[in-house]
Each structure stands twice: as C-alpha cells, then as structure tokens.
C-alpha cells in the first residue's frame, strides 16, 4: 500500500532537499516525547512518521526525551516510552535527553545576553502578561528591559547559583514588542524552579522553556527535518530567530495535523486524570488510547502502523473515525488469529441419542483465511455441550436459523442436531435444550444429505475450561468528549466494561499465549489479558466481528 500512494508533503520537501544536495542529502529526524505520561495513538502517528521518513530516505531517527519540566517527569515514563516504540517496530539511532544539553543551552543564553538579545526581567508573570499588549496593540517594555549586558550576565549567573526563589526572575529574549506574532514579543527563555530533576538531580534550579530548548536541541543533534504538529506554526519564527542569532546548525521545523479521533481524548494530561481518578485501571487499561492500552487490548504493531499509514499526513486539522482503527485490527486479526470456540452466556445442550460416557475427538483448523492455517487443534465432543443462550429460541421467528423446537443446526466441526425438547426453571428461564444428532452428518464426512442453514459454536461440558472474559465498549459515549466545555469526564460511558465471570472455553485455549489473537467463532477477536494466570484465565475482547466502518464507507 505504501508503495503505491503518492508522496505526502513532507516526503516532497525531503526529496527536493535531497535533490538540491542540502546537508549532503543526509536525513535525520527525531521523536521528542516529554516523559510526563504514556504514549498514545497520536504519538504512534508521530513515531511512524518520523521513523518512517528516516528509514525511507536512508537516514536515521533520534529518540530525544524533552525533559525540561522536572515537576511532571518520571523515569517510569521514560521506560514505558522506549518499550512502546520498540514494540511498534522502530529502533532509534541515539537515545538523547534535552537535560544533557543544559550546560550548552546555558552557554547559548549567555551568548544571547552578550549580543544584547536577552535580559533578566524581575516582573511577575501577571505583569509580563499585561505588558505584552494584544495582537492589535504593541506591548510595552518593562522597567528591566534596558538593563546592561554586564548587569544581565551577573543576574543570570546569580539565577543559576540559586540566589532567588521560584518566580522572582526570568530570562527573556529581547526581540520586538510590536511584532504581530505574540511569540516574538520578548518570549521567556528561562525560569527559576527549585525542583529535583529525574536526571540532573539538584544541579540546576533554572530550566529552559520549550522554545529555548527544542530548536536548540535539534541544532545540537544536527536534525535536518524537525517535524511537529500544527500548533507550533506560530513558534516557527522564534525557532528560526534563535538559530540565526546563535549561528548554530540550521535545523528546519515542519508542521503536520495532529491525530484526533472520535470517542477519544488525546492528551497525556487528561489521560493522567483518568488514571489518577481511577476511571480506568491504569495507563494500560484496554479502553485507553495509549499504546500500552491498545497492546493489552490485543492490537498488533502492524495494525497500528497500517492505521497511521492509511490516515496519511495532513496539513489541516481533522478528526479520524475510531472505526478506522477498529477496521485495521480486524483486518489484521482476520488473517492472523486462530479460530477457537468459547461460550460466553451458556445453556446446556444434551444430545439424547448420543451414548452416555462416550466421547470423541474432532478436528478444527486454526485459520481458514491463510495458507498454513489448516493445521489445527483437537476438539473433544460428548453428549453434553454448552451452547450460547441466544442460539436457542422457544418461539423462533421464520428466519431464525438456529435452535428452537423442531429446528436443526450444524454444530461447528461436528454433527447436525435437531431440537426436540427443552427444560425451564421455576422462573421460566430455559436451562437445557434436548436434541438428537444425525450420526452420519459429521463435518468433512457428511453422507446424510441434510441441508441446514445455520452453524453454531459449542464447548463440551465435561472438557470445558473456564475463563473470565472482558468485553469493552468505547470509553466515552459522545464523539467529541472535549466539546463539553472541558468537562470531558461527564461523557464517560458507564458501560464501557462488561465482565463475564464464567465463560466456557474449549480446552485448547488453556494454552493461549500472551500477545496472540484468537477469534472466538461468532463472538469476536480476543487476547489473553496481562493479569491472566494458569489457574485463572482472563481474556480481553479486542474488537467485535462486525465491520460497521467498511459498510459506512461504502454507503457514504
Ligand atoms: P500531549 O498533549 O498528549 O501531552 P504532547 O504533544 O504534549 O502531547 P509530547 O510528548 O510533547 O506530547 O509529544 C511528542 C511528539 O508527539 C511531538 O512531536 C508531538 O507533536 C507528537 N504528538 C503528540 N500528540 C500527537 C497527536 N495527537 N498526533 C500526532 N502527533 C502527536
Ligand atoms: Mg508536550
């Protein structure tokens, strides 16, 4: 698929740069996460894009932790980010940390001060905001803007030495208070924060702002194409200005539209709220749009890469239907998941003419959709079976091709049975269905000549294993949870998790492997949960079988 599609706008830029011999045709991109949370599917988009460009153009991609805010950053996040990138199938060239550049960045700030392009400002945050003007009115200088170079150098050194409390002073670039781009009106470069940093410890009490770290880090690493999301367009002028004044490597910034998805919030800060307030089990709750959540849910790396490829690279904001993501995993699992039988809401079926105590071993293929999938597993069969409650109806309508009084179906991989009778409990619930089977109707060697329309799945009562099965629905019940004035938690779907405590599964599933997909025939795709153990199996539903998205697209 990726071979056939036309170039996206970033590929066009890069190919032009290579043609012109820019940077000797070298391509170096980077993925720059802030280690303040787990990666989500939006980050996967950025990872596929940055690593994809590096690979396509025989270049490299750095992993750079943008760790300039010591308050929210943690080692746990660093480890999870590395794990998720590897799992997605990418390998970075260098693992780098912006905090490793603190000394260099400090030096850059001193250079700017010496050139008269930066000053120490004692104004409060409110005062600075008030003096910035509005997009239509120029800002006004604070009393500190006219400090001499010597004074600024001394004060900045004292800031570093820890002589002032948090918020007492900042370092600002001295650019243009009338610039129509508010980011150019003497932006903040450094602030004081007496906070322990997860890597530099207590060495620093001043930390660079995003705008005075990001572009400079790109330069230090000699990144050729620095790709970020659209909200950084107004920062680009400052990005270029700082590189020009510092006369450092001319990295260039390019912006693409971030991934937004229906029924999803896509921000680490908000996802952290869901975790902290226990609306979900954790960052890797299978309902979360995090990479770790999707992995636990049963998504494969290939399905996520395929999704990112399909949505392409846009220059304008858009919202992707979450159904497309579900389509991509369904497409993948259809080809890779092994077929198995599990009964989620059981009632008992008794085959009255099958001898008591008799059993036989039937055979089922792993996956009829793929070559090599015909190798399969043994399935024990006996007189008593579990079937799905919904596969029996006392008063079945005409087109109900399952079981009801007098109706016949095929039991998957087994025999044709005809319903003769059923038993109800005192409350009127059906508890047992009685059938007779046709002995010469066995799948693969059927000589009965009988034609039946329906096939149902089953599990032998005497051989069944039990499992907890967790069925998921969307975490939010509205398409755009953020449209609710920030009160996104009011739109959480109260039915996003349904737990089936005791499902019956065919014995082969007791050997299910973590990370592998299984199709429970007629029920959807499932995978073993990370909490599953040999004495207590737990399965997560990855996605249902029905492909509503493809249908919608055809209709539309
Ligand atoms: P969040 O708001 O979720 O914290 P962020 O942009 O602050 O996201 P970073 O860790 O700074 O998170 O992001 C690392 C990289 O991933 C950045 O280059 C950023 O542009 C990109 N990225 C983040 N969210 C998305 C998204 N939804 N779609 C595409 N790229 C994204
Ligand atoms: Mg960020």
Can you describe what's shown?
This protein has 556 residues and is an alpha/beta fold. The protein has three domains: 9-256, Rossmann fold (3-Layer(aba) Sandwich); 268-338 and 467-555, Beta Barrel (Ribosomal Protein L25, Chain P); 347-457, Ribosomal Protein L25, Chain P (Beta Barrel), CATH 2.40.240. The protein has 13 helices and 25 strands. The chain has a seven-stranded mixed sheet with strand order 10-23-24-25-21-22-11, covered by helices on one side. The two termini are 23 Å apart. The mean pLDDT is 95. It binds adenosine-5'-triphosphate and magnesium ion. Adenosine-5'-triphosphate is lined by residues 32-34, 42-43, 45-46, 66, 228-229, 258-259, 266-269.
CATH fold type of the largest domain: Rossmann fold
Main pleated-sheet profile: 7 strands, mixed
Distance between the termini: 23 Å
The CATH superfamily of the largest domain is identified as HUPs
Radius of gyration: 31 Å
* Spatial sequence of strands, sheet with the most strands: 10-23-24-25-21-22-11
Q: Which percent bin holds the helix content?
A: 25-40%
Number of helices: 13
Summary tags:
556 residues; alpha/beta; Rossmann fold; Ribosomal Protein L25, Chain P; seven-stranded mixed beta sheet; 25 strands; elongated; binds adenosine-5'-triphosphate
Topology summary:
Blueprint: H1 9-19, E1 28-31, H2 41-56, E2 60-65, H3 75-88, E3 95-97, H4 102-114, E4 118-121, H5 125-131, H6 149-160, E5 170-173, E6 188-192, E7 206-208, H7 214-221, E8 225-229, H8 236-246, E9 252-256, H9 268-276, H10 291-297, H11 301-311, H12 322-336, E10 338-340, E11 342-343, E12 346-351, E13 359-365, E14 376-382, E15 384-388, E16 408-411, E17 416-424, E18 430-437, E19 455-456, E20 459-460, E21 465-472, E22 497-505, E23 517-520, E24 524-528, E25 537-543, H13 548-555
Parallel strand pairs: 1-2, 2-3, 8-9, 10-23, 12-18, 16-19, 21-25
Antiparallel strand pairs: 4-5, 5-6, 6-7, 11-22, 12-15, 13-14, 15-20, 16-17, 17-18, 21-22, 23-24, 24-25
Helix pairs in contact: 2-11, 7-8, 11-12
The protein binds adenosine-5'-triphosphate (ATP) and magnesium ion (MG).
């Amino acid at each position: 698929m990726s071979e056939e599609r036309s170039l996206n706008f970033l590929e066009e830029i890069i190919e032009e740069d290579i043609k012109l011999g820019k940077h000797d045709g070298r391509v170096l991109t980077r993925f720059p996460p802030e280690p303040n949370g787990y990666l989500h599917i939006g980050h996967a988009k950025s990872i596929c894009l940055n690593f994809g460009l590096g690979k396509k153009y025989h270049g490299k991609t750095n992993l750079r932790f943008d760790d300039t805010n010591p308050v929210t950053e943690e080692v746990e996040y660093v480890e999870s980010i590395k794990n998720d990138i590897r799992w997605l199938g990418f390998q970075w060239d260098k693992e780098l940390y912006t905090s490793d550049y603190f000394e260099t960045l400090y030096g850059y700030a001193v250079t700017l001060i010496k050139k008269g392009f930066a000053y120490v400002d004692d104004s409060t945050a409110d005062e600075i905001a008030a003096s910035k003007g509005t997009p239509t009115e120029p800002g006004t200088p604070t009393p500190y803007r006219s400090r001499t170079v010597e004074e600024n150098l001394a004060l900045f050194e004292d800031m570093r030495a820890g002589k002032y409390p948090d918020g007492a002073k900042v370092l600002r670039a001295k650019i243009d208070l009338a610039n129509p781009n508010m980011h150019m009106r003497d932006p903040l470069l450094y602030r004081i924060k007496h906070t322990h940093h997860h890597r530099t410890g207590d060495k620093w009490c001043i930390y660079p702002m995003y705008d005075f770290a990001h572009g400079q880090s790109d330069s230090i690493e000699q990144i050729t194409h620095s790709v970020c999301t659209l909200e950084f367009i107004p920062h680009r002028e400052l990005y270029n200005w700082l590189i020009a004044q510092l006369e450092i490597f001319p990295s260039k910034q390019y912006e693409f539209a971030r991934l937004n998805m229906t029924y999803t919030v896509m921000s680490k800060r908000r996802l952290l709220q869901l975790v902290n307030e226990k609306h979900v089990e954790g960052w890797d709750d299978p309902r979360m749009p995090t990479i770790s959540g999707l992995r636990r849910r049963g998504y494969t790396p290939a399905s996520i890469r395929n999704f990112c490829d399909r949505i392409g690279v846009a220059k304008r904001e858009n919202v992707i239907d979450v159904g497309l993501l579900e389509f991509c995993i369904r497409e993948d699992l259809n080809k890779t998941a092994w077929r198995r039988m599990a009964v989620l809401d059981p009632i008992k079926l008794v085959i009255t003419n099958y001898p008591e105590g008799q059993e036989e071993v039937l055979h089922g293929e792993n996956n009829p959709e793929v070559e090599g999938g015909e190798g399969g597993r043994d399935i024990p069969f006996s007189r008593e079976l579990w079937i799905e409650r919904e596969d029996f109806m006392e008063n079945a309508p005409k087109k109900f091709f399952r079981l009801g009084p007098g109706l016949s179906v095929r039991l998957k991989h087994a025999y044709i049975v005809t319903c003769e009778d059923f038993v109800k409990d005192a409350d009127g619930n059906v508890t047992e269905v009685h059938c007779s089977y046709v002995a010469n109707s066995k799948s693969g060697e059927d000589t009965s000549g009988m034609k039946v329309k329906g096939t149902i799945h089953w599990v032998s009562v005497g051989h069944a294993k039990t499992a907890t099965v967790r069925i998921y629905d969307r975490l939010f019940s509205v398409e755009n949870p953020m449209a609710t004035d920030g009160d996104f938690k009011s739109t959480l779907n109260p039915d996003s998790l349904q737990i089936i405590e005791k499902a019956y599964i065919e014995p082969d599933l007791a050997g299910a492997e973590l990370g592998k997909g299984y199709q429970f025939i007629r029920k959807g795709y499932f995978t073993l949960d990370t909490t599953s153990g040999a004495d207590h199996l737990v399965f997560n539903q990855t996605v249902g079988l029905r492909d509503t998205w493809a249908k919608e697209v055809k209709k539309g």
